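Quick question: what would this complex look like in 3D?
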Amino acid sequence: MTGRRVEVGGAWIDRSRPIGFTFDGRELTGFEGDTLASALLANGIDVVCRSPILGRPRGIVSAGVEESSAFVEVSEPRFEPIVAATMVNLVDGLVATGRPGVGVLPFDPPPTTPTLHRHAHVEVLVVGSGEGWRPAVEEAAQRGDRVLLVEREPRLAAAGDGVTVLTNATALGLYDDGYAVVHERGPGRDTLWHVRAGRVILATGAHERPIAFADDDRPGVMLAGAVRTYLERFGVLPGERVVVFTTNASTDGLSDLLRQAGAEVAAEADVREGWAVAGTDGDPHVEAVHLVGPEGERRTVEADLVAVSGGWNPAAQLSRAIGGGLRYEEALATYVPDGTGPDWLEVVGTVAGVGLPPSAPYWYTPADDLSTHFVDLQRDQTVQDVLDAVEGGLRSVEHVKRATYIGTAIDQGRTSGVLAAEIVNAALGWELGAQGPTNARPPYVPVPFSVLAGMDRGPALLDPKRTTPIHGAHVESGAVFENVGQWLRPRYFPEDGEDLDAAVERECLAVRNAAGALDASTLGKIEVVGPDAAVFLDRMYTNRMSNLAVGSIRYGFMLGLDGMVLDDGVAMRLAEDRYLVTTTTGGAAAVLDRFEEWLQTEWPELRVVCTSVTEQWAVVAVGGPGARYVVTKIGTDLDLAAEAFPWMTWREGTVAGVPSRVCRVSFHGELSYELHVSSWHGRHVWDAVVAAGAVPYGTEAMHVLRAEKGYVIVGQETDGTVTPDDLGMGWIVNPSKGDFVGKRSLVRADTLRKDRKQLVALLPKDPTALVVEGAQLVRSADLPAPPVPMLGHVTSSYRSAILERTFALAMLKDGRAMRGGTVWATSGGHMIACEVTDPVVYDPEDGRRDG
Amino acid sequence: MLLVRCPWCGPRDEIEFRYGGQAGLTYPADPEALSDEEWADYLFMRDNPKGPFRERWFHTAGCRRWFNAVRDTGTHRFVATYRLDEEPPV
């Protein structure tokens, strides 16, 4: 093939605007309006790349999105690892290299194109500007409907008034209820459009189908319609001596057109007249074409271009992927939309099969050797490969696809799909159209991840970061943070180069021996208000909340309907008709949703309103034997004596000069005052308690301290399969109060099983050995042959500063009965012997909580 | 992405909603009167038809109201959405 630019044609190019570009290191020139493919042809370049598996030279087969042969990497002006040469608009300074069907990512990713995501709402979306879209659109535009037309090509004839047109814009997929995602490629910026349309009109046209023959992949074999396109749009004649190979009337007039452009037509092989192309010769491009006639007569002609048309396939991929069916249309020898599919989708014109030329059903030229009759060029798969798959027992084209990978390349089988299906049908002796081509899925064309990801916002992620009103103080004091749900919480506060262990040990001892301060503002807080608030909470929690006195606090569990622990927290009764309940940091939204669900769907008669107040309150938890001293020092009008202000009560007063709701609850067993103040005052109160001597501690120390007391963390000790009784907390369930969510499940046979996993503490016999969290527990250090019986798993494991030893919490089968016994934890390749004990390893008598 | 017609807010994108499973399952008046089998049936067993299905939706990122829908599970098409205090229209 020796393509060149000619004087005729070239409607899309501007011959006065030459454009310099580089291909495979060669500096070349094209014109504005060229694609890389047309410019390569104009420069006489016929071999664009090698095929991925067999390494055969490959040229340009098509002029569009169906390209299955010519693939390049573009390095300038914007990097694309693999793209069809027919899909690249030529721009000044473009640098491209042939790629064998597989892209290569550079070690240092090049900068990506900035991408905006935009939304559009229209009455009518038109995809493509193939035949048949105008009547519907003109009618809609006259009505005043918003009409958006997206066209993959860079240009479009006038669309008419009231129609918004996006060019260089490809619909990647159609989704439910008229939702479409469109990728618009711009010179400096891409846009990903999220379109919601009342009606989608699919006018994507049709793709020409090749015919398989020997060495049909040799550069110089091109789809006939592409030959016409290169001439008419780009003024490029892809060859000098042409063989036209056709099954249909779409090639009528092509020979004349070629002659006018200065080419010779060496032969016309029309299947309808019994003639076919049997094969090609040449190195690397086509030099001779072998023909076979109706009587089997053979002829060879010199030629450098074979223009092939095996019929036309409607480009119905977008319709099919959203449920539109296909039927075989015998006259057209192809599959057309069968009218099924979503009612908002209208398939019009060529893509509906309207106006397509009747075609003989001809898939490949018979031959003894079918091993170079390529069906899918990008996968290097031939007619013989398809027949081998059928011979191997495969019947469905879906299976043949997976055996041969036909249709799985970038072009998704646009040229090979019908061919492969009909070769399978024929090989099985089935009738034409017995089974159609495999489905293509979104995206319709490859799309860079950067486009889907959208605008680069730097290190900030889409998920918001939530910080407490005290966050600034933590940053100033050099805290190390961790993510808890969306919250950023201080994990520990290192001093003088301390590591995690040293900081946590110091922080734990401060709480046990003096006073610590924890920013507990992230606790979920929900106000439950209304005359029926008490009744409602009785039904949601395992224990009774209705007899809680105003001023008192109660710890409670919420269960799933299946009886498993879902969340925990305390309920404070603020007034007869008003409670504030706290939730786990990560569970706040889910608990509020759950309250809403039960109130709306099951108990609409209850007069209760739930409001999230998590961010309205900052919480500073002051804990330790010195807590009373600290709160006194920052100044309060409350009587802090244990008799006046006992455990599990709250009082309203002033602390550090600001109004506060002070709660006597503790997550570490020491004397504790949780100071709830308006968010505005959070920082002020925190600074005051720290100045008064409370040592800031983070979530890591909090975890150790609570574990020493056997306090569970929902989601750490529990995993959705744990009941209150499994945790040894049967006391929290009040069976006498009436029904509550999950109650019935607590007496299911499975929930009453004796060998359920139960919460225990483990004390490693070597007090310095730290068990790995998640470790499996087994009966002995000498493992029997697999399967080894697993007794349970470690849920939490820490070094206790106050006990000067390691310890762990675990869920252990029949664990309460095993107290005093020994289990072995598989830990980092070691086996650690552990004594099983009660889960409370520190101050089991609760002697410290009043200070 | 489905277009969900909230009975209170009108048509909105699916991402504003949470799916709530089969509709019409009423919490038993007296769960303790149920046998283990009956309770397990309420707790675990759900219809899974191909075709029209009554289901619950929650407009999480909107009006935060629960409502019911009849949706064809074969086509994903909503046949109707209706308030909790309304009878299924189909």
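Answer marked as accepted. Chain B touches chain A through 28 residues (CB under 8 Å).
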